[in-house]
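Here is one chain, start to finish.
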Amino acid sequence: MEHTPHDVTRLLQDWSGGDAAAAERLVPLVYDELRRLARSYLRRERSDHTLQPTALVNEAYLKLCDQTRVSWQNRSHFYGVAAQVMRRILVDHARSHASEKRGGLRQRLSLEEVNVPAEERAAELLALDEALHKLAEAFPRKVRVVELRYFVGMSVDETAEVLGISDKTVMREWESAKLWLFSELDRELASGGGA
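Its structure:
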């Protein structure tokens, strides 16, 4: 049976209205897209990442189900929030990995077992997250554009639809955000921060 975006929107609105069963009926309609989002996020992570797409989707969906104050507008709003939740999970995972690296769960490793790129990847993700928080303080819409374009992999058209802005505005915000983030990350690296 083919489902339309309107079916998803209707279930989201039912869920917002207090129908807990709507959340269960929603799962088969959104699962494939959530897995696509998870795979997109994990492609940017280190190759030995312990989270798999299914685990990331399951953890994100549990967090989404715990959202009691969200009034879901439509499927684009849902996927945008899902993308934010997945990014938070990966950032928390990277923080946990970094704290373990600093001695949280010490274990002896041979030199062959050390994976320097994995450590660098976690540091990069944490630095990017910090830079995104700084950018959000002044320009929250730019951060939403970055989340949807970079992390979710949405097109310019899809991003414009989710945010309710024009394609030209998406492109302007995207280019401006990239320049700001590159500058901020360069400044962090030059000062020895973020690692």
